[in-house]
């Protein structure tokens, strides 16, 4: 076999391959055997029809077609390996010559990973938010905990903001009561915004037994999006009472003996959260600067496939779970279809560039992924997918997605290398040291995932559903 590689552009090549006919012998034998099992000829046992009879009865062309289809993938793979090509996607194959007994010649055009020169990233500087926890934030956190321990007591007065009312609802569209538009005994906190628009104004000021009618656009059900005439009747009013903020509350709501200890713990938790956010922010901004430094040609077909995949995942996974279609989603987002497609294309380009650069950095730095790192990553992926670790691992293995998970972890380690070399300062001008964060590589993996939007968990979920 002879092969030659022609570079069409930085991301696409054409392979020209010539195969002497004798190298098709195994595929020809397999073709005759396959046809033997599929046809019957009077006077011959099934599977025992001579090759010359098959040629006469069914045509030599049918045999050659079967043999060539069998042989092409093997010779294409040999040519790819011989040319040391890193191909992307499936090739477009064109048979240019087929001479029976002499020669098979064909071309294969295919996208390839472009050669990327990793830029000097040691001079990258980024600014992140300062790590500051205010007294107001601590008070808010304690207040949220206090809200969780609120109690309700029935009252004989008009309902006011913050009260919990028990209500009966009836919705009509065009004067007809909807089958799914009646609900009794619904508990609702006035001001929470958890039900229909306009309900807060309708029930405020009503005592038990009072009712009101208002118009609201339905957020779900058989008449979703339509304006309905809603009648609400208040059957009970209860006032929410918050516990006193004192040491007794601290002992009831936590493992601490005093309110000051509870507040100190809340401050520490907020600091930990902000440290994580600060590290993520640093990684995202370092990655943005790295992408600006590198020239990365984008394969057109790969980009088109990536855009289509992102749109498919949005429409059939994310929006489907929310009961929305693309048209409704764009209406909520206030975007046109053109704006959405442009944004999706930009995100896809960023994802491809991120993956190419970080993969190249993995090779340059000779970064490896050990079993412990892979297991930890798998556990995180399983948690985010809503599957058990065992279910997720089985689905990933059966779907052949283990290399994808390894790639995700490796890219996270590559990004961590760049972040470590960068200068990170906060808005106060203080240098931020991220090197001591033992979760830095895991956080960087999440950042890289967000940019590339890999499909391992989507594919695992699809496998699990099947």
UniProtKB/TrEMBL annotation:
- Spell out the Basic and acidic residues composition-biased ranges: 452-466
Q: What is its EC number?
A: 5.2.1.8
Query: For this protein, what is any one GO molecular function term?
Result: peptidyl-prolyl cis-trans isomerase activity
The residue ranges flagged as biased composition, category Acidic residues, are 432-443
Segments of this protein annotated with the region Disordered: 430-466
Q: Which SUPFAM superfamilies match?
A: FKBP-like, Triger factor/SurA peptide-binding domain-like, Trigger factor ribosome-binding domain
InterPro entries reported in the protein's UniProt record = PPIase_dom_sf (IPR046357), PPIase_FKBP_dom (IPR001179), Trig_fac (IPR005215), Trigger_fac_C (IPR008880), Trigger_fac_C_sf (IPR037041), Trigger_fac_ribosome-bd_bac (IPR008881), Trigger_fac_ribosome-bd_sf (IPR036611), Trigger_fact/SurA_dom_sf (IPR027304)
* Residue span, PPIase FKBP-type domain: 162-215
Its family?
Belongs to the FKBP-type PPIase family. Tig subfamily.
Which HAMAP family does this chain map to?
Answer: Trigger_factor_Tig (MF_00303)
What does the record give as the function of this protein? Involved in protein export. Acts as a chaperone by maintaining the newly synthesized protein in an open conformation. Functions as a peptidyl-prolyl cis-trans isomerase.
The protein's name in its UniProt record: Trigger factor
